[in-house]
Amino acid sequence: MAKLPDKTITSALNLQRRLLEGIDAAKAAESAIFEQSGETDATATVLDQLQNSAERLREPYSRLYTLLLRIAEAQPASSAMLDLLYRSIEQGQAALDASAASVQEAKRDWNIL
Length: 113
Hints:
The chain is mostly helical and 113 residues long. The chain contains three helices and no strands.
């Protein structure tokens, strides 16, 4: 593996874990709202939003996994690859923040604890 700082590796792996937790939270809220109210005109929008939130987190999760693996296999990793990793961490965090806000709003609106 190209020698990445431990802080970068830890940051990427922690973000992957939080992205996975975010996917789980979005799908759990979607399931709870569906079980509580079914799929109606009133719930259709929020169910779609929660599904989209989970989907938006899959991309950065997969990208981080792929980049870390490619960097480990590349000897040495290119600076472009490393830059892509750093940008992916930033973008993944932004996606996670946006998704968390959407999930919290849906849970609040539909009284899901």
